[in-house]
Amino acid sequence: LYVDKLAPEQSELVAAIKGADPAARSLAEATLAGLGTDGLPALGSLLRTSDSALRIYAAETIGKLGPPGGAAGEALVAMLSDPSEAIRRAGFAALVQLGPGAVPGLQ
Fold first, then answer.
1. Which residues are CB-neighbours of 57 under 8 A, at least 6 positions away?
2. What span, in angstroms and rounded, lies between the C-alpha atoms of 48 and 55?
3. What CA–CA distance (Å, rounded) separates 106 from 99?
4. pLDDT in tens, 32-68
5. Nearest residue to 47 (alpha-carbon basis) of 65, 74, 28
6. What is the phi-psi region of residue 99: left when phi exceeds 0, alpha when psi lies from -120 to 50, beta otherwise?
7. What is the rounded CA–CA span in Å between residue 74 and residue 101?
8. H-helix or E-strand containing 87?
9. Which phi and psi (to 5°) does residue 96 adopt?
10. For 58, phi and psi rounded to 5 degrees?
């Protein structure tokens, strides 16, 4: 999952999601979720932010993709060692939704 190479429009969505305007944030979240697997780079960048709510949102959104979201599997596995139980649960739930093939060796 290449999170360091966001397309400009995805960078704008991530900025809006991290921003203070609730309406812009909501619209950006819906837009990003609607991108499907094309939104994985932006969602992957949100998995690594310090904002717990954004990390949980990203994990939930990736999980809804099911097996096609498997490119984010390793980032979700990293969430399993987070000190926050909510983060660990979100990562685990997303991995379950992605299915057994999401991360080689986790089957």
1. 17, 29, 46
2. 7
3. 10
4. 999 999 999 999 999 999 999 999 999 999 999 999 9
5. 74
6. left
7. 11
8. helix 85-98
9. -60, -45
10. -65, -45
101 to 5, 22, 24, 61, 98: CA distances (angstroms):
25, 36, 35, 18, 8
Q: Which amino acid is at 78?
A: A
Using alpha carbons, select from 36, 45, 32 the residue that is nearest to residue 3: 45
**Could you tell me the pTM of the whole model?**
0.87
Quote the tokens at residue 23: 């309406």
Count Cβ atoms below 10 Å from residue 96 Cβ, excluding itself: 12
* CA-based end-to-end distance of the chain: 20
Joined together, the tokens standing for residue 54 give 């954004």
User: How far apart, in whole angstroms, are the C-alpha atoms of residue 107 and residue 91?
Assistant: 16
